[in-house]
Amino acid sequence: MSAKTTIFLTGATGYLGSSVLARLLNHPDRKSLNITILVRDEAKAKTFESKFGVKTVIGSHEDLDKVESAAEAAHIVFNISNADDTAFVGAILKGLKNRNTKTGDVPILIHTTGSAIVMDDARGAYAAGPDTIFDDLDVSKAKAIPPTAFHHNVDLLILDADTEGYMRGYLVDPSTVFGAPTNEIAAAGLANTHSIQIPVLIQAALARKRAGMVGEGKAIWPAIHVDDTADIFITLFDTIRTNPDAAGHGWNGYYNGENGEYTWAELAKAIGQALVELGVASDPEPTAFTQEELLKYFPSLEFAYVWGTNCRIRASRARALGWRPKYTIEDMMKSIKPEVETFLRK
Prior knowledge:
Helices cover 42% and strands 16% of the residues. The protein has helices spanning 17-25, 42-52, 64-72, 86-103, 139-143, 152-164, 184-187, 197-208, 226-242, 264-277, 291-297, 301-304, 316-320, 329-345, and strands at residues 5-10, 33-39, 55-58, 76-79, 108-112, 134-135, 168-174, 176-178, 212-213, 220-225, 254-257, 261-263, 287-288, 313-314. Helix 3 packs parallel to helix 4 (86-103), helix 8 (197-208) packs across helix 10 and helix 10 (264-277) crosses helix 14. The mean pLDDT is 96.
């Protein structure tokens, strides 16, 4: 009997993390997977153990000793909970280094970063040209990302660790994630069912009774459905287990997530149309947020301007491994009205 693959997964109660965990629970090779998750809530931990048959570590991102120990005990770590916590990722890396030192195993970290590593500061004023596109097969473009870029300080910790050689790092890089998770973890009420970018705009639109955008909304972003995003993780996981040399790691290990692009104005118009159809607004045309509104509906002005950035990527690496996204930009636009209805009910 072959040894089980030990897995430590963070973000199990999150929008994306729950979707990845659900795929591992339904994996054809499930019996060979020994899965441990990090959970803050003791009641949820008990449900995960009894209902889904996973082990749990009860703790938060601040419990660095627990995180380090759990990482050390795993051959494969999925970090799907925070792209910006250097101490947390540092604890994971410390655990993986301990494992390598003690056992000689070269463990795996599949980390969730974000396409914001290549966004600009357009504030809705212009659409970036094709020369700005970051194709994940272009390592020179990856190496040109400034250390100050959003999320990139954590990416660099992982890239340095991979270069050092005690672990292999893989960076999954989704863009605007949309859609409602339909997995059994979400159905059990254990997971967040909303992403960030689109819901923020919907909530602002409901509050002001009209769709809004940053500036003229001309800037471009890619998008990807939550299920297609989760499938990148599993495609990568399966390749690493069966044919590890086929999956690039380190600087060759960015796996972008996209299946088409939209402008912020197009997205705002779809929200505006939904508001009209649901009787919330009389005019579907979005208007620019005022400075006062940017401060009111977003955590900070700097954060608000993210909704006016350009961010252009191509997901060539995952496609080369056989990943085939099912959902398009048209599907994203169709998902807007049901999501608006969800927030109206709340």
